[in-house]
Design goal:
6-stranded mixed β-sheet; 5-stranded antiparallel β-sheet; 10 helices; alpha+beta
């Protein structure tokens, strides 16, 4: 009998995207093949404490996206540098079974910004997804946009302001060329946390203050009137596949957090997207080039805008995209013939290379 692969699934975390991670793990765990994998469910609470959770009872209010919470299990402790017993029970001192691979499902700060990836490298544990560098680069929208521009990829016109620059007289002059409407967002954040759409000048300062609640650096982007298009990338540095293009049609002001996760009927996902074959091919080419530029591995979702004048702008790259019931990343691959369960298999295989 073939030995099962021990997969440690990490979820939760101290970021503002804690609940989104719980929504993702709720879908991933049932889809993992139990004939192939032995699971260790490791939940991380909002304070950063790690817990070994019982699969029969690891989520509270699992059917309510607004109330879903982690159900705590046995407290764990870390022993860096000892992969055979990197995690052990805090109360008994007993190590967990040897972990073969880690499947991180932590979104946002500490989960996909390179911090967790660096820790897993220290622990000498293979893990699903991008390396430390790519994770950090993609998380910082200001840095990644500059790199992508240098690579010749068109990005949404933007301005970056540090916290100390917000109240300077020069700040408004810097932002003026973007025009209105524009979007104000934290440079290091995801799932539209802290994002505001500014349509009038008097809204700008409150929007900047809102973004600064999440980061010390703020990204201001010109609003592109047109379509929101996403595509998925799967593979390693040597060979990667790009999915069909999908389209998000929000029935709200913009595709904000509530629209994505709390208002089930407020956004429509269309696969394939309503774009010409030529535009689709160009977006796929840009997605692959962006993946290569940031040296991504495993998986990423690349988000674009297509303006009403058929101009393409790369918006951002997400290195741990959602795996919730409404998430575009798995849906794009399902449309291409890869089932949800098979996609998870492929991601785990890629973690060992």
């Amino acid at each position: 009998m073939t030995k099962k692969i021990t997969v440690a699934v990490l979820f939760g975390g101290p970021s503002t995207e804690h609940q989104i991670s719980l929504l993702s793990v709720k879908n991933v765990v049932p889809a993992l093949n139990r004939q192939r994998y032995q699971l260790l469910l490791i939940g991380i609470d909002r304070q950063g404490q790690w817990w070994l959770c019982d699969e029969a009872n690891y989520l509270q209010h699992a059917d309510d996206p607004a109330k879903i919470e982690l159900h705590l299990g046995d407290p764990l402790a870390l022993l860096p540098g000892n992969p055979q017993g990197a995690l052990f029970h805090r109360q008994t001192g007993q190590p967990l079974p040897t972990i073969d691979v880690v499947f991180p499902l932590l979104h946002g700060t500490y989960g996909e910004d390179g911090a967790l990836q660096g820790l897993l490298r220290w622990l000498k544990l293979p893990f699903v997804g991008c390396n430390t560098l790519a994770s950090a680069l993609a998380m910082d929208k200001a840095v990644s946009k500059r790199l992508l521009q240098t690579a010749g990829i068109p990005v949404t016109p933007f301005v970056v302001l540090q916290a100390h620059e917000i109240n300077s007289p020069e700040a408004l002059q810097t932002v003026a060329p973007l025009g209105l409407p524009l979007f104000v967002k934290p440079a290091n954040q995801g799932s539209s946390m802290g994002v505001s759409r500014v349509t009038q000048l008097e809204q700008l300062v409150p929007a900047l203050q809102q973004a600064l609640r999440f980061d010390h650096k703020v990204l201001l982007e010109k609003a592109v009137i047109g379509q929101e298009i996403e595509c998925a990338v799967l593979g390693n540095r040597q060979a990667a596949e790009v999915s069909l293009c999908g389209e998000i049609i929000p029935h709200d002001t913009f595709y904000a957090y509530d629209t994505k996760y709390l208002k089930g009927n407020q956004a429509e996902l269309c696969i394939p997207a309503h774009i010409t074959p030529a535009i689709s091919e160009q977006i796929q080419a840009y997605a692959l080039k962006a993946w290569q530029t940031l040296e991504c591995e495993g998986l990423a979702r690349v988000d674009f805008f297509v303006s009403n004048h058929q101009q393409i702008f790369l918006n951002e790259i997400n290195t741990i995209p959602g795996f919730t019931a409404i998430s575009m990343y798995p849906k794009l691959w399902q449309a291409g013939g890869i089932t949800y369960s098979k996609l998870l298999d492929q991601l785990i295989v890629l973690a060992f290379y």
